[in-house]
């Protein structure tokens, strides 16, 4: 294997470690999107990636750390693909509409092999209190918070309960993801119509 | 074991068979509400119920038949506990409000050990076309259809898209189930508020 030219041995090892970590986490996010976070194991990821089981274990230490790193990785990919492209849009209706469109795209052509990472992992974890569930809840709250802020910005009247509207919009987006996986292509329009109704409420 | 007094041997066997079937299906619904329909197996149900593995297999034949019978059993329990109690209510706003209240109760104090049967099984099956997914979809469509009918009856104006409103209400009910499992007790009011908004739309 070539050593990076401008790096001493330590940096080279660290670069390879980071790259390996990324490969294992990509595989972990895809596996979790299919079967949830519980079946994740050092052995299964080793088989999937060709990295040795000891190598995978050395990167994450415990299964819980692996699960937390997998959630953080999914969140980074989600933020980069769904949220970041709307950064340049005007806050409010325009940005909210953009977020809904990016979500629809995310649901229509899933980033992860099993479809929506959050839909696959939350029902599994929601009855198991602990750091893993907390990490999922914190991602969900951040997403609903983002919808609430953009909704508040978008609406002419500030009298409506923005948190309720954000909860409703998030519920519909999740249901659209599920409906699309059942082959109901028209579901995407339900997300658009709901966003429009809530913006104009 | 006592033989039923007013039954010949055949009827006695059939009665025992029905009772055993009910015991196995109760266990199957609870298991599926926790881990989904895939981990259901004759062996696991035998261990859970004390019925012999051959006995369980004789009742259902194939794993797919077992899964379909489990869905039908969950649907019967759901209909008896959530839908039937609203039969005597006036169609429209009153009955819809009753359905929402029964759903909240269903979500707050789950009928099944793992919580909502549909939330646990649909994400697992939605990417696997076949009779099992079809059975789940048909239950979901019947439920959304019921909400749509009551919404149409409840609303003063018939101009709104009742199917969209039913989709939205179902989405919020599912999200409330999930939020309750995350400990957000206030989520129940979001279901009530959403139903009220949609009725008055």
Give the helix tally of chain A.
9
From the helix content, strand content and strand pairing of chain A, which structural class follows? Answer: mainly alpha
CATH topology of chain A: Tetracycline Repressor, domain 2
Low-confidence parts of chain A, pLDDT < 50 over ≥5 residues?
1-8
CATH homologous superfamily assignment of chain A: Tetracycline Repressor, domain 2
Distance between the termini of chain A: 60 Å
Largest sheet of chain A: none
User: What is the total number of structural domains of chain A?
Assistant: 1
In percent, how helical is the residue content of chain A? over 70%
**Which CATH-level-2 architecture of chain A?**
Orthogonal Bundle
CATH level 1 name of chain A: Mainly Alpha
Number of strands of chain A: 0
Question: How would you sum up this structure, described in words?
Answer:
Chains A, B: Keywords: DNA-binding, Transcription, Transcription regulation. Chains A, B: GO terms for molecular function: DNA binding. Chains A, B: It holds the Pfam family TetR_C_13. The structure is a homodimer of 201-residue chains. By secondary structure, the first copy, chain A, is mainly alpha-helical. Chain A contains 9 helices and no strands. The first copy, chain A, has helices spanning 9-35, 42-49, 53-60, 63-83, 93-108, 117-125, 131-154, 162-181, 187-199. In chain A, α1 packs across α2, α4 (63-83) runs parallel beside α7 and α5 (93-108) packs across α7. The termini of chain A are far apart. The A-B interface holds A 114-115, 119-120, 122-123, 126-127, 133, 137, 161, 164, 167-168, 170-172, 174-176, 178-179, 181-182, 187, 190, 193-194 and B 114-115, 119-120, 122-123, 126-127, 133, 137, 161, 164, 167-168, 170-172, 174-176, 178-179, 181-182, 187, 190, 193-194.
């Amino acid at each position: 294997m070539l050593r990076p030219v401008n790096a001493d041995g330590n940096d080279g090892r660290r670069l390879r470690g980071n790259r390996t970590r990324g490969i294992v986490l990509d595989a972990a996010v895809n596996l979790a999107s299919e079967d949830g976070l519980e079946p994740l194991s050092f052995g299964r990821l080793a088989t999937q990636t060709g990295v040795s089981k000891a190598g995978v274990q050395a990167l994450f230490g415990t299964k819980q750390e692996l699960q937390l790193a997998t959630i953080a990785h999914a969140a980074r990919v989600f933020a980069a693909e769904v949220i970041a492209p709307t950064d340049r849009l005007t806050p409010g209706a325009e940005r909210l509409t953009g977020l809904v469109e990016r979500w629809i795209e995310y649901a229509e052509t899933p980033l992860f092999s099993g479809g929506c990472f959050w839909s696959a992992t939350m029902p599994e974890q929601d009855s198991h209190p602990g750091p893993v569930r907390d990490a999922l809840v914190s991602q969900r709250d951040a997403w609903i918070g983002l919808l609430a802020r953009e909704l508040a910005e978008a609406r002419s009247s500030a009298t409506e309960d923005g948190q309720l509207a954000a909860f409703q919009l998030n519920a519909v987006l999740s249901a659209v993801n599920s409906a699309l996986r059942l082959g109901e292509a028209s579901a995407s329009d339900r997300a658009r119509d709901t966003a429009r109704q809530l913006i104009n409420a």
